[in-house]
Automatic annotation (TrEMBL):
The keyword Cell cycle does not apply. It comes from the Bacteria. Residues 1-18 form the signal peptide. Coiled coil: none annotated. Transmembrane segments: none annotated. Pfam families: Phosphodiest (PF01663). This is Type I phosphodiesterase/nucleotide pyrophosphatase. One of its GO terms (molecular function) is alkaline phosphatase activity. The keyword Signal applies. Keywords: Signal. It comes from Breznakibacter xylanolyticus. InterPro entries: Alkaline_phosphatase_core_sf (IPR017850), Alkaline_phosphatase_prok (IPR026263), Phosphodiest/P_Trfase (IPR002591).
Length: 523
């Protein structure tokens, strides 16, 4: 009887221990711009053992995590990742929107400033964010103890990773080649030391060619017989450091800076958990509109795999992977380019929002008289002139319906939703992703959704893929006793923040609408 009691007591202790694990000392989010699950799987056999392959072979893989935004702006989905909220809650609906109160266009990072945001503008502010992030909640639980850091190539990604606190994030400046603090003019000495090593100048003088035989690249296997294509780019061919920053050498600098930060700021070295985001990219700056499977993209992926081998190996050696949670994901996974669709005989086309605005305004002038009836177009949203419509004593609801009816007749437009529809009907009756992307104070009077395969022509003439409703990114959890497996059930990007919150045993962000991905806990 006494032995039975002892065994029961031991069993109860083991269950209790399993239910309340020790939080990881460090969470490292590796966010790769334009990473898709198909790229991870397609090139898996080419990876080194210690990089992406190690995560895929040992981690918990969610290959198809749905994004909840129709925006072209990558920061919208990044904000959802860190807040667990949809754009309708966190407010980052686009890079720009028209503010009805001030009658001015607002830039998501610069407020009312009309200056374009590039890699050299400081400070980067995220006053547009309406709720807390993972980092905010971590700091709230361990004020002055837990560190939240974010480093990367673009402020449009790392601004949302760092949370509402202005400290602790760095951008690789494409004009100077230096790491700059996005919120302070003062840099720690170790950052000055890193900049002083002159890596950017060294890498800028290099040429970038394929790592392997060009015929071994995926794109080469599908060229017509007799066709060949190689590439070799001079990274100093343009002023500044832009080509170097958006090349494999930019990712190499990010890896080295991440290691320097881990060492100099002692991340993961005490009893208080820290959060580090490292942003890499698969977008080659020397190639305009590179396709997902182009040789340059594959080459960046294979070289980034080497940087991942170094980063993961460093974390294992210095901290131990049992004390570190690594989360790999894509910051943005665009759809196929219209040119790719043409080659594959897939229906496609290019929608121009500015031209649609002009046509809409001409239609209203012909019907209701002279005036600027449509004030702005931003990222799928049309903003009508409320004052003019009120002065003419026309129903706003009627004008929105008229606009939607005209827009739906334009080539490439699949659906058009009015402000009133999105305010008064549930997501079951209105397109779910469009409904989740709608914010009453920031979205337009009419929102459009394009046909699958269609792109959008920007002001500079560039045609970019318009996000589709089934846009997905991979998420891989690795380390911190995460079991190995692959999960194909439906998951949403808003589920990641509550999952990491559960690992850290802290409150979920205050706008969270997601649920923990329980498979990573062995359940």
């Amino acid at each position: 009887m006494r032995k039975l009691f002892v065994w029961l007591a031991l069993g109860a202790a083991m269950v209790a221990k399993a239910e309340v694990p020790t939080p990881p000392r460090l969470v490292v989010v590796v966010m790769v711009d334009e990473l898709g699950a198909e790229q991870l799987f397609l090139w898996q056999k080419k990876f080194e053992k210690g990089g992406f392959a190690r995560l895929l072979n040992q981690g918990m893989i969610y290959p198809n995590v749905m994004l909840n935004s129709t925006s072209l702006y990558e920061g919208t989905s990044v904000a959802s990742f860190y807040t667990g909220a949809t754009p309708s809650v966190h407010g980052v609906v686009s890079r720009q929107w028209f503010d009805r109160f001030s009658q001015r266009t607002i830039d998501v990072l610069q407020g009312y400033s009309q200056e374009p945001v590039n890699d050299s503008v400081v400070p980067y502010r995220n006053t547009s964010l309406l709720c807390s992030t993972l980092g905010d909640e971590l700091r709230r639980v361990y004020p002055g103890k837990s560190q939240v850091r974010a480093i990367g190539l673009s402020p449009h990604i790392i601004t949302w990773a760092k949370g509402n606190n202005p400290d602790g994030y760095y951008v690789l400046d494409s004009q100077t080649g230096m790491m700059r603090n996005g919120s302070k003019t003062h840099l720690p000495q170790w950052v000055h030391d890193f900049n002083g090593k002159g890596f950017a100048d060294l890498y800028r003088q290099r040429e970038w060619g394929p790592l392997n035989d060009i015929n071994d690249y995926y794109a080469s296997k599908f060229r017509n017989q007799g066709q060949s294509r190689n590439f070799l780019y001079k990274l100093n061919a343009s002023p500044g450091y832009g080509h170097m920053v958006h090349s494999p050498y930019g990712n190499l600098m990010m890896r080295d800076f991440a290691v320097a930060m881990l060492l100099n700021e002692n991340l993961g070295r005490d009893a208080y958990p820290d959060l580090l985001t490292v942003s890499f990219s698969l977008k080659p700056g020397v190639v305009r509109n590179a396709g997902q499977y182009d040789a340059e993209v594959e080459d960046m992926m294979l070289r980034l795999d080497r940087e991942m081998t170094g980063l993961v190996g460093f974390l294992d050696e210095v901290l131990g992977l049992d004390k570190v949670l690594v989360v790999l994901t894509g910051a943005f996974n665009r759809s196929a380019l219209p040119t790719d669709n043409i080659q594959a005989d897939i229906p496609t086309g290019a929608f121009n929002g500015r031209k649609a605005l002009s046509l809409l305004n001409l239609y209203f002038m012909a019907k209701h008289g002279q005036g600027k009836w449509v004030q702005a177009y931003h990222d799928g949203s049309f903003y009508l002139n409320e004052k003019l419509i009120a002065d003419k004593k026309i129903s706003m609801d009627e004008m929105r319906r008229e606009a939607a009816d005209l827009l739906i007749q334009m080539s490439g437009v699949a659906r058009a939703y009015t402000y009133d529809q999105l305010m008064n009907e549930s997501s079951a009756l209105v397109g779910g992703v469009v409904y989740q992307s709608f914010h009453a104070k920031r979205s337009g009077d009419v929102l459009i959704e394009l046909e699958p395969g269609w792109g959008e022509e920007l002001d500079n003439g560039e045609v970019v893929p318009r996000p589709q409703l089934n846009r997905q990114v991979p998420v891989v959890f690795f380390g911190a006793s995460v079991p190995h497996g692959i999960v194909h059930r439906p998951c949403n990007v808003v589920d990641v923040a509550p999952t990491i919150s559960s690992f850290l045993q802290i409150a979920m962000p205050n706008g969270n609408v997601g649920s923990p991905m329980t498979e990573v806990f062995g359940r």
